[in-house]
């Protein structure tokens, strides 16, 4: 008996205690996941907690089922919607055959953005003055660039876009230009691209939308007036600037980019390149790294996980 007990006792120490600890750990895990849903462990603006913003433009958003939320979850500070106007409704999709009744600008972007910003700007007795936090809980002053790529006729479609922004405007969520000289930053900065007419943006002294200028053509006389108040960001096709790329960029190619980025920068305009190579992966990643080193404002990316790893 004694011998048996002495054999059993140590094994209880070795096996019994860890299994008790395991039971405790399960409860701990459930507290860590806050499976109890306790109010002690959540806070009003935690919807985007832990997401670190990255200077990435989520391109080809229509590849994703839930475009705005996917881009947000990866920390992209820029997102894009291709819009088509039919019978007074703005639909979102990359071509006409991809459009459906349900995929509207309002459903896929305006309402989700309103919802996130409402969560980030709660009212409670602790909040004593109005807040205007952006979508990122970790960087509340970071604006989200919202490119609206107008696909149907510019004047009618962009007018409908201006009207569709009204719910965001009413809440004070849109970055605004006042008296043609002062930008008042806000959680969302709308930039018209595609068929957006310059003459619906540039001459307007009080507005809450901006224009995506052609980065490669800023030195042309017709764009001489364009500065950061009209175009906080200008974009161009990467391949059209450097040509097709099979390996590393040459010093000359890098020089072209540097000059464009500098010309834009001197006018208060940030640079964005689309059409960067996505294959081979080594080339794709090295282009991203060069663009970050040359201080573009936004990297364009389809593969949000891959670009996230560059940072
Ligand atoms: C627009 O309205 C017209 C007239 O009601 C209708 O014939 C047409 O199918 C509509 N088009 C779309 C894309 O909704
Ligand atoms: C606002 O400034 C832009 C850029 O200089 C200019 O083209 C436009 O005419 C100005 N608008 C007004 C109303 O003064």
From TrEMBL:
Thylakoid recorded as keyword: no
Signal sequence region: 1-23
Keywords from the named record: Signal
GO molecular function: phosphoric diester hydrolase activity
Superkingdom classification of source: Eukaryota
GO biological process: lipid metabolic process
Family label: Belongs to the AIM6 family.
Protein name: Altered inheritance of mitochondria protein 6
Natural source organism: Aspergillus ibericus CBS 121593
């Amino acid at each position: 008996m004694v011998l048996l007990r002495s054999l059993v006792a140590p094994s209880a120490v070795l096996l019994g205690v860890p299994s008790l600890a395991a039971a405790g750990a399960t409860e701990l895990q459930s507290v860590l996941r806050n499976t109890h849903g306790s109010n002690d462990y959540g806070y009003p603006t935690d919807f985007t907690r832990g997401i670190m913003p990255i200077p990435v433009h989520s391109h080809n958003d229509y590849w994703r089922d839930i475009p705005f939320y996917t881009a947000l979850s990866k920390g992209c500070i820029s997102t894009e919607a291709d819009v088509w106007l039919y019978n007074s409704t703005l639909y979102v999709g990359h071509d006409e055959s991809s459009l459906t009744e349900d995929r509207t600008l309002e459903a896929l972007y305006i309402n989700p953005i309103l919802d996130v910003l409402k969560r980030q700007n709660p009212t409670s007795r602790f909040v004593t003055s109005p807040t205007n936090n952006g979508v990122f809980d970790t960087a509340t002053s970071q604006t989200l660039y919202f490119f609206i790529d107008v696909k149907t006729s510019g004047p009618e479609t962009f007018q409908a876009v201006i009207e569709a922004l009204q719910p965001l405007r009413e809440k004070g969520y849109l970055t605004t230009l006042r008296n043609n000289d002062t930008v008042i930053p806000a959680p969302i900065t709308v930039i018209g691209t595609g068929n957006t007419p310059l003459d619906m943006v540039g001459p307007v002294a009080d507005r809450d939308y901006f224009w995506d200028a052609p980065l490669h053509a800023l030195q042309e006389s017709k764009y001489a007036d364009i500065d950061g108040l009209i175009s906080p960001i200008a974009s161009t096709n990467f391949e059209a600037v450097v040509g097709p790329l099979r390996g590393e960029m040459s010093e000359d190619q890098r020089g072209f980019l540097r000059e464009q980025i500098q010309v834009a920068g001197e006018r208060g305009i940030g640079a964005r390149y689309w059409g960067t190579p996505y294959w081979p992966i080594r080339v794709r990643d090295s282009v991203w790294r060069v663009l970050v080193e040359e201080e573009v404002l936004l990297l364009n990316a389809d593969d949000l996980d891959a670009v996230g790893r560059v940072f």
